[in-house]
Amino acid sequence: MTRAAADAMRRIYLDEKDGAVAETVKMRLDRVEKREVVRARELAIIKETLLLFIRVWLEHNPAPEEETLAATHALAERRFQSFLDLLAESLQPGRTLFALAPHGRVERNGADAETSP
Questions:
Q1: Spatial distance between the Cα atoms of 59 and 88, rounded to a whole number of angstroms
Q2: How far is 106 from 102, CA to CA, in rounded Å?
């Protein structure tokens, strides 16, 4: 919900004669607005992360040679399809890829453990 929409809703509902209803509506709209601000920030972070990854990838990976272009495209297509399959699986309810990511965990004696700072 945009700020303008939230403001319009406040004006409509705060004109109610019942002060308790108006206060409840105001509190709920404020909560929704705060969540929207958090979501917008999270989305901006995701976008910046993706763009940075793409830029670094392009800077450090040379373009394929003309002779191997067809094979490279075929391999890329297979790998991309595998990525999409994994993504679709991770988007199922109760699933996440985050647990599989190497973010601060190292394998010790066959078990994952937190790394020391």
A1: 28
A2: 8
